Amino acid sequence: MEINSRSKSFAISIASLVIFITVWELVCRLGFIEPLFLPPPSQILSRAVKMIENGQLISHTLASTRRVMVGFILSSMVAIPFGIFLGSSRFFMAVFDPLISLLRPLPSMSWIPLSLLWLGITETQKYSIVFMGSFAPSLLYIIEATKSIDPLLIRAAKNLGASKLDVMREVILPGSLPQIIAGLKVMLGIAWTCIISAELVAAREGLGFMIMNGKEYFQTDTVLLGMVMISITVMVIDVVFRKFERRLLPWTR
Amino acid sequence: MEINSRSKSFAISIASLVIFITVWELVCRLGFIEPLFLPPPSQILSRAVKMIENGQLISHTLASTRRVMVGFILSSMVAIPFGIFLGSSRFFMAVFDPLISLLRPLPSMSWIPLSLLWLGITETQKYSIVFMGSFAPSLLYIIEATKSIDPLLIRAAKNLGASKLDVMREVILPGSLPQIIAGLKVMLGIAWTCIISAELVAAREGLGFMIMNGKEYFQTDTVLLGMVMISITVMVIDVVFRKFERRLLPWTR
Amino acid sequence: DETPEKVTVIYGGSSWLGHYPAWVGIEKGLFQKHGLGVLFQNFYASSGRMGSLVAGDLDIASTGSISGIALMAAGSKGFMAFGTPDSYATVEGIIARENIKTIQDLKGKRIAAPFASSAHVLVLDILEQNGLDPEKDLTLLNLKVNEMPAAMHSGEIDACAAWTPHFNKLLKMPGHHLLVDDTEFSLYKKYKLGPGPDLLVVRKEFAQKYPKTSKAFVKGYFEAVDMLINEPEECAKVLMKLTNLSMEDQMEVLKDITWITGEEQRALMVDPGDFVAGMQQLAQFLVKHNQIDHAPAVKEWIAEDMVP
Amino acid sequence: MDPVNKDAKISIQKVSKIFYGKQKEEVVALQDLSLNVKDGEFLVIVGASGCGKTTLLNLVAGFDAPTQGQILLDEKPVTGITPECGMIFQQYALFPWKTVQENVEFGMKMKRMPRKDRKERADRFIDIVSLKGFEKSYPHHLSGGMKQRVSIARSLANDPKVMLLDEPFAALDAMTRQVLQEQLVRIYEKHRKTIIFITHSIDEALLLSSRIMVMTARPGRIAQEIVNDLPHPRNADVQLSTRYMELKRTIWDSVQAEVMKSMEVQAD
Amino acid sequence: MDPVNKDAKISIQKVSKIFYGKQKEEVVALQDLSLNVKDGEFLVIVGASGCGKTTLLNLVAGFDAPTQGQILLDEKPVTGITPECGMIFQQYALFPWKTVQENVEFGMKMKRMPRKDRKERADRFIDIVSLKGFEKSYPHHLSGGMKQRVSIARSLANDPKVMLLDEPFAALDAMTRQVLQEQLVRIYEKHRKTIIFITHSIDEALLLSSRIMVMTARPGRIAQEIVNDLPHPRNADVQLSTRYMELKRTIWDSVQAEVMKSMEVQAD
Ligand SMILES: Nc1ncnc2c1ncn2[C@@H]1O[C@H](COP(=O)(O)OP(=O)(O)OP(=O)(O)O)[C@@H](O)[C@H]1O
Ligand SMILES: Nc1ncnc2c1ncn2[C@@H]1O[C@H](COP(=O)(O)OP(=O)(O)OP(=O)(O)O)[C@@H](O)[C@H]1O
Ligand SMILES: [Mg+2]
Ligand SMILES: [Mg+2]
Q1: Across the interface, do A121 and C52 touch by the CB < 8 Å criterion?
Q2: With an 8 Å Cβ cutoff, is D188 touching chain B?
């Protein structure tokens, strides 16, 4: 039954996608919209074929993906333990609260001037934009997640002899993991925002560069292709995530 | 006791902030860092005084805040009911899943070319950037939040005669509200990212404009002042949010 | 012994015409002749390029002088200027719809310019000359040059200030005409100086550490300038790779540029230093229009040793 | 057992329920269980811990579908959750974001009863479970027994035809329990409800039931059915009668045998 | 009562606990309660639902601080949570992300016991609570009674000197309950533990305790203390003795009076 309903969902999704693309194509073909404003999917597809043949599409995609993943993984690797630590210590929470409040709302875009001054146009600068742009929101997010844990479970753990560190590792981490993972999915989107911004400035490859370059030359199809590529990449990463999620969260379903 | 520990936290936070600013000032004053790379807080302050006097700081801040709030509130007003609806209907979830997956990862930056084509250089275009950039992540987020509700409570509600709509309104909405609110805080950050991107293009006011213009003229203090203003604005909104939160979530603490 | 201490130079450029000599020098092997390998790093904006220069990622770059002056005003001593490669006055200007005949007609209209650029400065100056207040009499919008054609097309704006190649593109669009170009700029009338002349800059530490490398670069660079003057078609062929323009358009652009040779540099930069004086005026102009806080003494940033 | 029974309010027909674990291992919670509950009957189910009692109630309430077999309510198959079968959950299932009062009012609110009537009726049931003064408290400020009483009041206030009670009095002291037992019997008799009631207390089973079903150890089947013929009211005298002792003995032995079996099952 | 008592393992001295609601209204859960528990004592607490039993246990375990008064454990004030007092929670408090086995192993893991020893010991206690075969199951795949048994096993396996049990057998059938009661007594006698045990079953109280404390209705104080002098082993014979009946009667009356009072308190 479970399996059935899942494959049913999948079928519905596919159908809905097909309908969506068909409507889009028709609307463009029938001339309701100028291709400059919105090219039909077929035009995007032919642009994709062209760019796959000359190897550009793959190299832009890989460049951006690499940057996103490096920055994102680094930021998660710092944010998760640090967030759990802050979420379980009133004192350090108070110490870092003002700094986090200051840093958190800062959009990745606003880091570009400083990062350029500090790091120049290196790959490190790109990673740092992703890192700075996604670190503070991840941290906030993880701290919120730790607060959703039933305090009874923390009591129980301490009652069984758990130290503060044990509580973090054995209770707060796994207890907030489902929410953390949900949050990381959102963060991955933020990381992409960051990289697109970073690639605006001083980049010669990457999907951000491709979109901006396409815009420069009024190639709306290239712009849309770049957008679709971002979506596809995120979807692929999502599937990997989900596999990972099942592994990490065997107790849910 | 509660009150005591809260005011203690506050004191620690203030102390930590003071120390942070002092260290920063000292490091700059002692010449470890060039002011071009990182101006001391006092320089940022004097820039602030200057810009308050000529009225620019207030008008930039108000412009951005207005844009963020309009776009953000609109997107939340659509995303919350829609997210709860999708989170409680397998069928419609399946229908919209591919579209959401496509739209969600798209950074607000990538909407700029299309939004300019479609809406021109208007305030509506700015709102739309914020809307498009924060809608899909909010939606995803809210859908995830609805999944964290104990299915037992949904059963209980149905068992007491709740219709599908009742379940959404009486169980899924309040049950996911704490998480939704936590998520909206993150989304507000995303909305700011969007507006900074939007103000890059065809704007002559707003904090994004101010930061980017400051960057063009290598006025690192203006850049940092813009960043600080974003932080302060978000903090003010956060305080309002928190009041709101206590009202909305009386059952937590 | 003139062999350079260091054989690679990282140059920061873009597809703007100010970077043609560097590109030609690389493509035609002119730097190579002096034992140099030059790496051409692409940047969209002058400010990003200048930031990278002072951060130590670039060795030499060409920049719009507004960015240069702004960086001086910010107090950065990390770079020096050593030349100006070109003068252009007819590939930048304000383009308007046909119904706008005079500057006065701009009243109440929407005009776009990329803020903090030469075109921005041009607009501010022209408006001032005609007694218009950019805050009250009209709406001045910050728009990137590449966004202007669409905005003009859709009627979002009534006029815009742009430079080549978008300048040419905008002019060709039906119903558009040239309102003014850089020749109307107040400083041009006095100093033959456009609102944003190109400036060759070097990282100070680099110039001090590798004087011979710097010299070698300057030599190769101005040989490329000579080649641009003497063999424009040969150069256009390699430039198409940089600019993505057609051969025809590329030649068109080249026609409008006056190249400044190595021999002329000393007079402009050092003695009597007309160009530097003009830059100083520009700095004051920027202060007057609240674009920068104070005018730096431009002279202090000239690397006299490196000027050919 | 007769699969189609005209009299039956609830007819459970050859029902099996299998749960699949992570590694696809099966837990057979119920196997081939058939049972009819007549209109107005008070059926008490007893059985070893983990034998499938809650599972059975979940199937009747429509929370879950049987792996095999079917369940009829008023001769119509149960396909989804229906408010006709009011459930009192073993885990209380109170809404944490609603006060005691709002929790109790929930069912009535769903029926769009006017606010005033709702409040009055809720007050009455809050009184019945002795929680006056806690109307404005949220569930996590209540003791275990108090939560259970809120859950009872919420279900009673909703006035369902069929009531499914899963160890409703387990967290209550003997005295409160007795008061609520009496209230339940009163409501049952006055409103002619059909009740399925799970308990671990054989005394409680004998006191309340018109019929008792003992379930076997997992997989759950019917070990024994006992029609409770003790006279009403079942006061202290009745509880000292030999018939009472006899029934208690029988049930005890039957449950004991099943628990022993379940321990053996687990031992290998 | 003597506030400093050299013999006392646990000394509760004039303890009050007040909870503040949203609108600052007070709930006085405990008032001026003093009590000493000697080393090796088996104290059973009975009382009306909501009278403050869980609250008292929470204070002893250090989960919460008294509003007034203090609590000494081994003559040292309780200031935080200590693993010396093992708690069995009314709400089970199992870790949902850990299997039965991992839950039971938790305390030992915290003591850095080697994996193999841990597993062996966990297996033994899983066996004691008859959950063999469910080692790999997650809590939400277990029935209510099974969860309660996991919680018992987890605490027993951790071998605390003092055990605090909050209605540990409430969700269990009579037979399983009896088996576990026997196991608990065995462990208590063999390892000389000090136990505070909350129950609603007076029979259970009489069967297990060395002393019984009846609490008053909220605010919780001591209504009556009874030293349980019934002879060991407390088999069927003892349960039919007049002394047993007498004690049961006394306690019942005492609890009943308090419940009545609590209903009156709520009525106005
Ligand atoms: N966190 C809390 N906030 C506010 N009030 C509370 C809180 N915890 C308990 N109370 C109140 O304290 C009183 C005593 O609760 P407690 O849980 O100790 O009762 P109990 O004796 O264990 O009852 P039961 O037998 O039903 O479990 C109750 O009236 C309850 O409403
Ligand atoms: N969602 C589930 N997934 C897997 N197994 C389950 C699930 N729910 C129950 N089970 C299994 O089904 C069996 C019966 O569980 P059930 O809750 O019906 O027992 P019960 O008779 O109510 O026990 P108790 O008296 O302890 O509440 C148990 O072995 C349990 O492990
Ligand atoms: Mg059950
Ligand atoms: Mg309790």
Answers
A1: yes
A2: no
